[in-house]
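[audit] Reproducing an earlier prediction to check determinism. Same input, same settings, fresh worker. If the tokens differ from the archived copy the diff job will pick it up downstream; this log only records the rerun itself.
[audit] input (52 residues):
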Amino acid sequence: MTAGASGLAYDALAGQYRYRWKTVKAWAGTCRRLVLAFAHGTQQVATFEFTR
């Protein structure tokens, strides 16, 4: 994957969504937030701290 590339997939067997992306080295030492907004109006938020 290239930096910034992403992909969302649903695993029906596990009943889970999986989101894969590659980050850029410049994010080291920062926090980033991923917000998923669903069509029915709800959101799920995940916050990540990048250490290296």
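[audit] rerun output stored. Observation attached for the diff report: The mean pLDDT is 87.
[audit] end
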